[in-house]
Amino acid sequence: MKRNGEGPSTSTTRRFSTATSTSIATLLIHLPPLRLSFPRMSNETFYLRYYSGHSGRFGHEFLEFDLRTISEGSSAAVRYANNSNYRNDSLIRKEMCVSDAMVEEVKRIIKDSEILKEDDSKWPQKNKDGRQELEIRIGNEHISFETAKIGSLVDVTESDDPEGLRVFYYLVQDLKALVFSLISLHFKIKPI
């Protein structure tokens, strides 16, 4: 048993450190260069459009966004429009490009939600309070939904198809949060 700082000799420690760093350096020199490759987006067609709007005393008020692949699937264009005539507000339009990684994430969110398995035949029909539309195309799969505006989860649970409408409700909330975050990041960052 060694005490009072009596441990392995410093020469042994130095030798080990030097030997280790030499081995690592030798190993790094002889390794082929590391090539980072991320999974490329497939060239399948992708399109997503969401619309929520109504016509009221302030005219046609709506929120709409879409995302579609461009340039052979290597990126996508996101378009956003928000029209509110309340207090004479004007139409807000934003457009931006996002990478294929973002498109893959949106596809993953859509596929994980299993919205492509749903049917809107038992959902509330559009009414004077407005309507919502969701259209998705992924490759050869295409689906389009139309329903009344959903104010809260109470509207979902009181519908004829609460499970399907719940999937729609949460997917729309996720997509809106994602688009609002993209807009915030893309347009509100001040350059140095």
From TrEMBL:
Keywords: Nucleus. GO terms for cellular component: exon-exon junction complex. One of its GO terms (biological process) is RNA splicing. Its main location: nucleus. SUPFAM superfamilies: Mago nashi protein. InterPro entries: Mago_nashi, Mago_nashi_sf. CDD domains: Mago_nashi. It is found in: Nucleus. It comes from the Eukaryota. Coiled coil: none annotated. PANTHER family: MAGO HOMOLOG, EXON JUNCTION COMPLEX SUBUNIT-RELATED, PROTEIN MAGO NASHI HOMOLOG. Belongs to the mago nashi family. This is Mago nashi protein. It comes from Penicillium thymicola.
